[in-house]
Amino acid sequence: MLHKQRAINRCLRRAGKKTPSPRIQRVRRRGGAGRGGGGSSDAAAPPLAAPARWPTNLRSGSGAGGASRQSHGRLPLYLQLDQCSVSQLVTGTSRRRACPLPMGLLPQLTVEQRLPKGFHLLRWEVLSIWTGDRLEARAFRLALIQLHVSSVKSDNLARACGLIWEAAKQGAKIVSLPECFNSPYGTKYFPEYAEKIPGDSTQKLSEVAKECGIYVIGGSIPEEDAGKLYNTCAVFGPDGTLLVKHRKLHLFDIDVPGKITFQESKTLSPGDSFSTFDTPYCRVGLGICYDIRFAELAQIYAQRGCQLLVYPAAFNLTTGPAHWELLQRGRAVDNQVYVATASPARDDKASYVAWGHSTVVSPWGEVIVKAGTEEMIVYSDIDLKKLAEIRQQIPIFSQKRSDLYAVEAKKP
């Protein structure tokens, strides 16, 4: 059946390019050679990755031929395929029936970034040929730096950059600092330590991200902008560019009689936008501390394709024992994502004593790694294949009753 070839040929003709001849290669389960044996030219060509499952609407998916195709992973291998964009492939195919991209092909963001706006269902049989070998789930190392924060900003910055270097040497690809990593946490400190972005703190983070070639989630700092103060997290890419700036959405205003009273709103203003950024591994959603208590934020991030949520946070000795791990596990299970929290190290002499215990939780709700209270780096290898398996086993996203309820963002 050459319906895929015809679809691609139509795209190439529209683009004024020469249409290639198809070659069929049999890809055996354990990497066997093509029909021509070990010495054939087909056997030397790199095979496309077999999809996680075959769509039921393939014309050859039934009878003896379909069984053979499913058993041996019989895939067409097209020449000059990179001459076609995904937009051309998807819009050019004559097959109107569509089915969702299998969860085994991750990260989905690679597809989303290259599809025309508004495509939620993908014409699987064409798209999987173009990008199947590029969407294999990857594992990567995440590092959380549980920094001891002092009253000397320059010391905090120097120690933070040194620990980022150490994490990078241990293979970390994404590194997160804690909330308020460059200043003590407290309403009286925010105006004193506030700086603009870009500024001294963010410039140093940009430099170390570029030197190490990694993604740096800059915890948070007090940011001054147009006469207002914000609790802000800046993220830098491997080339040192500022990827996103997240301002804490939900301000920490609580009153627990006899234990703790705190009002961030005395000095800080809330942010008003969602913050995600893309990596070669997955899409990451950002929150800061108190943001984790609001399930809707995590749900919106999951809807937008995030597979890892990172919350630089500074819980205290009242809320930490009761809610720290509970909230992380809840957000992880509800949305089938990895959740990471980066806390400052505990300083019992500080006016605000942080809980510590920086943590990473899996989509199954398991605590993968958990720090103590002292300054340290914790590492976790984020396995996106495991995430895909969990979503296949318990497919809550396809089971949601959108006819009865919905969580929707009111801003982009």
- How much of the residues is beta strand, in percent? 15-25%
Stated plainly, the CATH topology of the largest domain is called Nitrilase/N-carbamoyl-D-aminoacid amidohydrolase
Low-confidence runs of at least 5 consecutive residues? 22-135
- Which sheet architecture does the biggest sheet show? 7 strands, mixed
Oligomer state equals single chain
User: What is the overall number of helices?
Assistant: 13
Tell me the series of helices and strands, N- to C-terminal.
Answer: HEHHEHHHEHEHHEEEEEEEEHEHEEEEHH
- Measure the end-to-end span: 42 Å
Secondary structure elements and their pairing?
Elements: H1 3-14, E1 23-26, H2 41-44, H3 63-72, E2 74-77, H4 86-92, H5 109-114, H6 124-131, E3 139-146, H7 153-169, E4 172-176, H8 190-193, H9 200-212, E5 215-217, E6 221-225, E7 228-236, E8 242-247, E9 253-256, E10 260-263, E11 276-278, E12 283-286, H10 295-303, E13 306-312, H11 319-335, E14 338-342, E15 359-361, E16 367-370, E17 376-383, H12 384-393, H13 396-399
